[in-house]
Automatic annotation (TrEMBL):
Residues 414-677 form the Ionotropic glutamate receptor C-terminal domain. It is found in: Membrane. Keywords: Glycoprotein, Ion channel, Ion transport, Ligand-gated ion channel, Membrane, Receptor, Transmembrane, Transmembrane helix, Transport. The chain crosses the membrane at residues 537-555, 597-615. This is Ionotropic glutamate receptor C-terminal domain-containing protein. One of its GO terms (molecular function) is ligand-gated monoatomic ion channel activity. It comes from Coptis chinensis.
Length: 723
C-alpha cells in the first residue's frame, strides 16, 4: 500500500557470467606471498540478511573462478564479521592486512566502516572494494583514500527520483523519517540531497523524524508509537523513509498503520535500501546485493589476472569495463559511474506491482530499456505519472492523495480573516463575527466551489496587523503551541519577497501596486480667454494686424474718401476697418486693387486664426482642467510633507525602508472614509494606497483627487497558507 524504489538490474537468467571468460586462459598470476594462494578479505555483517546473501554470492563466485582456472592458483576467502560496528570492521581489516596478508578486501556496508578500513588500506596499499558510498561524495575522496574503490552510486539520483514523484503529484511538503545510527553523516547527507531535490520541484521537508536503532530500544513498539503520534500535528501526510534498517522500517510502517497515519490522502515512500530486502512472493531471484557482490569479485579477478603488483592491481581495478550481473562495471574517480534506472513499485502485502521506471534521462517511462515511452512530469501541474491503478494507503482512489491532513466537519480548517480593514469592500466582518462578506470572501468561495473535494472550514476574525496574521500561519506550520495559529488566512494580502520565505501564497487574484493619491486644484478662469494662444502667438497676431492696417491706409487714403480727413479720422477708420474684418463686419469699400490683394491675404489669416482660437477656447471651457497639488513621490519626500497610509499593512514600513520617508511624516489612517477629512484638515498632503484600494477611492472621490507618479509593482493580492 505504499511506493518503493528498486534499482533496476539485468535479468540473471539472460546474462552470461563474466567469470566464464576465464576459461581458456593458461595462467592466472595471482599476487600472494605463497605461489598458489591469493588471499581475499571479506568484511560483512554475516548475521544480517544482506550479509548472508553477499556471503553466498561471493562463495559461488570464488568457486566459479577457481574451477575455471587451468592452474593451481586459487582464490581463498577470509570472512570477518562486522557486527554492525565500524570499530569491529577496523580491527577485522587490521587483522586481515597484518596477519592474513590479504591482497584485497571487499565488503563494508556502511560508509563509516569503509572510511576506517580505507585509512588502513592507504598505509598498507591494499585495494578496498567497498559496497558503501557516502550520500554526498566529498570532492577529494579519491585523493584522500587512493585505494578505496566504491562499487555503488551515491544517493543523488535516487533522491531526484523521489522528488520527481512528489513534484508530479503537487505535494508541497513531506516528512522525512530516518534511523539515527549515532554517526549522522549518511542520514544528514541523504536528507540534504532530498531537500535540494524537493526544492527543485517546489516542495520542502516540513519535519524530520529521527529514530534510534531498534536494538537500542527496550520497548520499540511504545517508543515508535509515541514518536509517530508527534506527527499528527504536522500538515503533511507524505512520509519518506530514508537511511533505515529493514527491521526499523517494518516497525514504523506497522505502527503507522495502527496509529491512523495510513489513511486516505496519506503517502508512504521508501528508498531502495529498504525495498531490496522486502520478503515478497516474487522474491525468487538474487537481489541487488548478491549480484553486486558477485560483480565485485569478478572485478577483482579480472584485475588480478592482469596484475603483477599492488599498484597495478589498483590501476586494473579502476580501469575495469565490462557488463556484470548488476549492470555496467566502470569507474570514475574511484566510484561506480553507471547511471542507475529505478523501478517504482507498489507494495501490496507480500506482492508488489511495478508501476513505472525512472531515469535521469527519460524521467518516468513504461520501459526505459525497451520502449523508452516517456511520461514527462510538469512542476506545478498534478499528473498521475504512476498511472491510475496505484494502491495508496487509503486504497484505490479515484484521484491522487492530497498529501496533507484533510479538514473534516469535526476538525474544520481554521481560516483567519482581518477583523478590521481600511476598505470594507474587500473584507467586512459582521458584528457576530460570522458570515463575512467582501470581494476577497467571494473569490475564496468561488475557488472552493471548483475543488474536487470538500473543504470544511470556519472563519476566525483576527484583530491584528497583516504581518501578524501571516505569522500565525507560520506558527501553525511549525507547531508553535504557545502562539496563536491558523491554517490559512483569506483577505487582501500582498505577495512580498520576505513573506514568501516562510509561508506559501496562492495564485494572485488581483493586481497589486503602490500608488500616490493627492488632491487636485482647479485652474484660474479669469484670463482663460487668453489661454488658447501663448504670448508669442499673440505678439505675432498683433504685429500682422497693425502692419495690415497701415498697408491698407497707405493704399486707400488718396483714392478712397472713407480714409480721408484729419489724421485721427484716417487712423481710426483704418483701425476699425481692419478689426471689423475679424468678424467680417466691415462696411467700407476698397477701391485700390493692391489693397484688395492685401485684404484677401488678411482674410485668410483671419479665418485660420479665428478657427484655431474658437476650437481651443471651446475645449478649455468644456473640459475641466485640474492639476495635482504634488506631482510625484520625490517632491513629496523632499518637501517633508505628511503622507497617509494604512497602518496595519506593509505600506508604512515600505515607505520608510524603500521610499525613504521619515517615520514622523507618515500618518496612519484607519478607515477609507477618514482620508477626505485628513486631506481637508491638512494633516496629510498625499495618500499611499495599493492599486485595488486606489481604484475604490477614486471611484468614490474621483472629482477631488488624482493619481500621480509611477506605480511600484508587487506580486499581487492573494491568500496565504502553509499546506
Amino acid at each position: 500500500m505504499f511506493l518503493d524504489l528498486y534499482p533496476r538490474f539485468w535479468d540473471v537468467r539472460n546474462t552470461i557470467s563474466p567469470v566464464k571468460e576465464f576459461v581458456g586462459h593458461t595462467k592466472v598470476p595471482f599476487i600472494s606471498a605463497q605461489d598458489d594462494i591469493t588471499n581475499i578479505g571479506v568484511i560483512i555483517d554475516v548475521s544480517s540478511r544482506i550479509g548472508k546473501e553477499e556471503k553466498v554470492s561471493i562463495e559461488i563466485a570464488i568457486q566459479t573462478i577457481n574451477n575455471a582456472s587451468s592452474n593451481k592458483h586459487k582464490l581463498v576467502l577470509h570472512v570477518r564479521d562486522t557486527g554492525v560496528n565500524p570499530l569491529q570492521a577496523y580491527m577485522a581489516a587490521e587483522d586481515l592486512i597484518k596477519k592474513t596478508k590479504v591482497n584485497a578486501i571487499i565488503g563494508m556496508e556502511t560508509w563509516q566502516e569503509a572510511v576506517l578500513v580505507a585509512e588502513l588500506a592507504n598505509q598498507a596499499q591494499v585495494p578496498i572494494l567497498s559496497f558503501a558510498a557516502p550520500s554526498i561524495t566529498p570532492p577529494l575522496t579519491s585523493m584522500r583514500w587512493l585505494f578505496l574503490v566504491r562499487l555503488t552510486n551515491n544517493d543523488t539520483l535516487q533522491m531526484q527520483c523521489v522528488a520527481s514523484i512528489v513534484g508530479s503529484y503537487g505535494w508541497r511538503r513531506v516528512i522525512g523519517i530516518y534511523e539515527d545510527d549515532g554517526y549522522g553523516t549518511t542520514c544528514s547527507g541523504t536528507l540534504t540531497l532530498l531537500s535540494d531535490a524537493l526544492k527543485a520541484v517546489g516542495a520542502e521537508i516540513e519535519h524530520s523524524a529521527a529514530f534510534p536503532p531498534l536494538s537500542s530500544l527496550s520497548d520499540p513498539k511504545s517508543f515508535i508509537r509515541e514518536e509517530l503520534e508527534k506527527l499528527y500535528d504536522k500538515q503533511s501526510r507524505v512520509f519518506i523513509i530514508v537511511g533505515s534498517s529493514l527491521e526499523l522500517a517494518t516497525q514504523i510502517i506497522t505502527q503507522a498503520k495502527e496509529s491512523g497515519l495510513m489513511r486516505r490522502d496519506s503517502v508512504w515512500i521508501t528508498e531502495d535500501s529498504i525495498t531490496n530486502q522486502f520478503d515478497t512472493e516474487d522474491n525468487y531471484e538474487p537481489q541487488i546485493y548478491a549480484l553486486r557482490s558477485y560483480d565485485t569479485l569478478s572485478t577483482l579477478a579480472f584485475a588480478l589476472e592482469k596484475s603483477s603488483n599492488r599498484t597495478t592491481l589498483l590501476e586494473n581495478i579502476l580501469s575495469s569495463n565490462f557488463s556484470g550481473l548488476s549492470g555496467q562495471i566502470k569507474f570514475t574517480n574511484g566510484e561506480l559511474s553507471r547511471s542507475t534506472t529505478y523501478e517504482v513499485v507498489n507494495v501490496l502485502g507480500k506482492k508488489y506491482i511495478v508501476l513505472k521506471s525512472w531515469s535521469a534521462e527519460y524521467e518516468f517511462s513504461d520501459n526505459v530499456i525497451d520502449k523508452m515511452v516517456q511520461v514527462k512530469s510538469t512542476v506545478g501541474a498534478v499528473m498521475q505519472v504512476l498511472g491510475n491503478r496505484v494502491y495508496w494507503p487509503g486504497g484505490l482512489l479515484s484521484r491522487p492523495p492530497l498529501g496533507w491532513v484533510m479538514p473534516s466537519d469535526a476538525n474544520p480548517m481554521v481560516i483567519g480573516i482581518p477583523s478590521k480593514t481600511t476598505f470594507e469592500k474587500f473584507v467586512q466582518v459582521n458584528k457576530d463575527g460570522e458570515d463575512p462578506t467582501g470581494f476577497c470572501i467571494d473569490v475564496f468561495n468561488k475557488a472552493r466551489e471548483r475543488l474536487y473535494y470538500g473543504l470544511p472550514h470556519s472563519f476566525k476574525p483576527i484583530d491584528g496587523k497583516y504581518d501578524e496574521l501571516i505569522e500565525m500561519v507560520y506558527n501553525k506550520s511549525k507547531t508553535v503551541y504557545y502562539c496563536k495559529s491558523v491554517d490559512a488566512v483569506v483577505g487582501d494580502f500582498t505577495i512580498l519577497a520576505n513573506r514568501s520565505n516562510y509561508v506559501d501564497f496562492t495564485q494572485p487574484y488581483a493586481e497589486s501596486a503602490l500608488t500616490m493619491v493627492v488632491p487636485v486644484k482647479s485652474k484660474e478662469k479669469v484670463w482663460l480667454f487668453t489661454k488658447p494662444f501663448n504670448s508669442t502667438m499673440w505678439l505675432a497676431i498683433s504685429f500682422v494686424f497693425i502692419y495690415t492696417m497701415f498697408v491698407l491706409w497707405f493704399l486707400e487714403r488718396r483714392s478712397n474718401p472713407d480714409f480721408t480727413g484729419p489724421w485721427k479720422n484716417q487712423l481710426s477708420t483704418a483701425l476699425w476697418f481692419t478689426f471689423s474684418t475679424l468678424c467680417f463686419a466691415h462696411r467700407e469699400d476698397l477701391r485700390n486693387n493692391f489693397a484688395r490683394v492685401v485684404m484677401v491675404v488678411w482674410l485668410f489669416v483671419v479665418f485660420v486664426v479665428t478657427a484655431s482660437y474658437t476650437a481651443s477656447l471651446t475645449s478649455m471651457l468644456t473640459a475641466q482642467h485640474l492639476e495635482p497639488t504634488i506631482s510625484d513621490i520625490a517632491t513629496l519626500r523632499r518637501s517633508n510633507s505628511p503622507v497617509g497610509c494604512d497602518g496595519d499593512s506593509f505600506v508604512r514600513k515600505y515607505a520608510v525602508d524603500v521610499l525613504g520617508f521619515h517615520p514622523n511624516n507618515i500618518i496612519n489612517v484607519m478607515n477609507e472614509f477618514d482620508y477626505p477629512d485628513e486631506f481637508k484638515s491638512g494633516k496629510i498632503k498625499a495618500a499611499l494606497l495599493e492599486l485595488p484600494y486606489e481604484r475604490v477611492f477614486i471611484s468614490r472621490y474621483g472629482k477631488e483627487y488624482q493619481v500621480t507618479d509611477d506605480a511600484h509593482r508587487f506580486g499581487g493580492l492573494d491568500f496565504v497558507s502553509n499546506l
